[in-house]
Amino acid sequence: MGSPCEVWLHGASPDLLSETGRWAEAEALRLEHKYSRYRDDSLIGRINARAGSGSRTPLDEESMQLFAYADHCYDLSGGVFDLTSGSLRALWHVGRETIPSDQEVALALRHVGWPSVEWRTGELRLPNRNMAIDLGGVVKEYAADTIIEGCLSRGVRSGLVNLGGDIRCMGEHPEGGPWPISVKHPFETGALAKLLLDHKAIASSGGYERFIDIDGKRFTHIIDPRTGWPVDGLAAVSVVADQAIVAGSLATIGMLLGVEGLDFLNESGADWIAVDQAGQIHGAIISN
Amino acid sequence: MAGSGQQVVVVGVTKKVSPHRQSRNPVKPKRPGQALLSLSAAAMALPAFAVNQPTETEVAVKSSYYEEDPIRASEEVVVFGDPERYTIKVNQFYLLKPIGANWSLTFDYANESMSGASPWGAVADDEGNQQLIMSGASIDDSRNKVEGTVTRYLPESAWSVTLGGSREHDYRSDYLGLAWIQEYNLKNTTLAIDASYASDELTPTDASDFGRIEQADKTSRSLAISISQILSRSQVAQVGYGVTKRSGFLADPYKLRDVRPDQRLEHRVSLGYLQYFEPWGARLKAEYRYFWDSFDIKAHTTSVSLFKSLGQDWDVEPRLRWYEQSEASFFALGDRYDLPLTVAQSSDARLSSFGAWSTGFSINYTRDVMKVGLSYDRYVSEPSAGIGSPSGHRALMRYELLSLGVRFRL
Amino acid sequence: MTSKMKCTWLFVCLLTLAGCQAVAPWEREVLAKDEMSWTSDPLGQTLEQQVHFSKEAASGGLGSAGGGCGCN
């Protein structure tokens, strides 16, 4: 997953817990291997290798549903949530010394565009050689949900999954009560928010951990696929929802929309908190 | 990481819109909270969440009181016995428990206690008018039924096995059921096949005193197939066909003269429709069934119910049902003792031609895991409204049914 | 048989004039409501079927099963 991951399970039967823990680890690895864009033998690796060649990659039920979910996010977000926007990262790569020209940006945008991806038939085809799909953000959160739901159906009812900052919990903390979570502040040491999670998930999106400096100016690593430029406006967004994948998608969309994202988050129906580049805090997470 | 007080400079970016791409504004939610609801519903399709198996344990109890109207009519109609009809008290218990990730168990128990009189027979006078012979002293009887079902869930299908038994002091029934459900078209279409077998034994009371049969057997075999189709996000339709073959002693052993064929083949075709009206929080359900059998009986059943939410916690459901049937080929208004016992005949009201209106109403209150419901139904027969010429039976049914139930989902 | 052909065949069986567009799983929030199932009250339905079985000649139909009683 590229970031630290942990699974905490709590219950009365050590055998059940260790068996379930082993299953959870195997499941996280399975999803990572299947959807990693860094591996040639993963589904995404194969899809991206065939980009522009005309050949189609068959999708299984799980992949089909993940793409359908991402498609739904694309519509809901007005086009900012775009699985093909990863190729824009190559444009704004670390170590770049000059700001890209309009022509460079326009060229890069030709390889971006989720609507042009064919997937609905159950086989996926990327029409353009430089197009690439990146499911990384979605799969990490989906893995958290898969693990929690799998634990619940196996009879393990208390626990917490933290996959690189995307957290979902169930049941009670070993010392009783809901799980205490603290959300890191993007600029300051200490917590942005402390809350108690009761059978919910919290996911965060933030550009503050990775950025590039060009000519003394700082750019985030989150690129708006509509314009080809890094977003400004928000340094970090965290959203609480019943499912990690929903919390994650809302956080990502909020982040990608920049300042517009505040309205979107406000009207989304979820609890959220965000910090803009000036350090001002918006929204509030109320402990449930 | 920048400490507090240090400003982070970010370039003010003017949004340059590429000519190749249309910049769309995000979907403006029509109602607050739509984004969350929309994504949550979308997420439910993912394999991690999409398990057919019920996720909650359900426990329900219900107590009901059933009372028939006494025979309306003057003394000329009831020449013997008690015009008071049945009253029945029913207590039911239901449990549904998910087991592991792929199984569930259902347990069903019912206890009925009934008392009252019912027609023993009828005679027809010279003008063809019927006079009833009712049973005398109140019949007190009770029935217990126990049933269990095990269901196995697979990604796009499920199968289940049911075993049950019903016991009364004069009647015993044991039955077995098998069911299979298969989903198609992204679960828009559901095919269901049900098969069941029941083996019953009658041991009528006071058999020797009244010249009744002392013991008899009866079996029933049924097969039903139905298809349910989602038509839109708020509409579902269903069509079904079922066939049942009954063999053995099919007559009513308590009637003075009741002789029926030892085989009965029944068919039924059903249609169902559900529609939800989002702006009103209301749901319409309509069902129709056409029944026909080897006794020459045909019946139409039509029912409509309207469900309406009232605020967060309350809902109501008024309903209406119309039923009409034709008379059996061997139905006779008055018992004919001159005919040999090998000739089929029955003056049983249930085999005569009649129609019946039923109106009912339920009101439910939901709070957290608990739902409490009260319902009332009134059933009124219309002797002249059956299929074909009216039989004119005078022991047709009118009853009231009142139920109070509580359900917990945990 | 393709999905579309199956759909068409079922239509004939259903005798319905409505269109057959598959409703995607994420549009199912209305269909998931209790009141949109064929049997939202199993005990109530069992009771009603039992009463009708003992008073009418017709029996069975959508969603029924079970054994006999001395009531018929």
Rg of chain A to the nearest angstrom? 19 Å
Broad shape of chain A: globular
User: Sheet bearing the most strands of chain A, described?
Assistant: 7 strands, antiparallel
Q: Biggest chain pair contact, residues each?
A: B-C, 100 and 51 residues
Shape of chain C: elongated
Oligomeric form: heterotrimer
- Quantity of strands of chain A, as a count: 13
Largest sheet of chain C: none
Strand content bin of chain C: under 5%
Structural class of chain A: alpha+beta
> What is the percent of helical residues of chain C?
25-40%
Notes on the protein architecture:
The complex is a heterotrimer of chains A (288), B (410) and C (72). Chain A has helices spanning 14-35, 43-49, 61-76, 88-91, 102-109, 136-153, 244-256, 260-268, and strands at residues 5-10, 57-58, 123-124, 158-163, 166-170, 179-184, 191-197, 201-206, 211-214, 217-220, 234-241, 271-276, 281-284. Chain A has 288 residues and is of the alpha+beta class. Chain A has a domain at 38-134: T-fold. In chain A, 50% of the residues are buried. Chain B has one domain (57-409): Porin, CATH 2.40.160. Residues 1-30 of chain B have low confidence and may be disordered. In chain B, a hairpin with a 2-residue loop joins strand 17 (354-367) and strand 18 (370-382). Chain B has helices at 34-43, 207-210; strands at 58-68, 78-80, 87-99, 103-116, 119-124, 130-134, 139-154, 157-168, 171-184, 189-202, 216-232, 235-248, 263-277, 282-293, 298-310, 314-325, 354-367, 370-382, 398-409. Chain C has 72 residues and is mainly alpha-helical. At the B-C interface, helix 1, strand 1, strand 3, strand 7 and strand 8 of B face helix 1 and helix 2 of C.
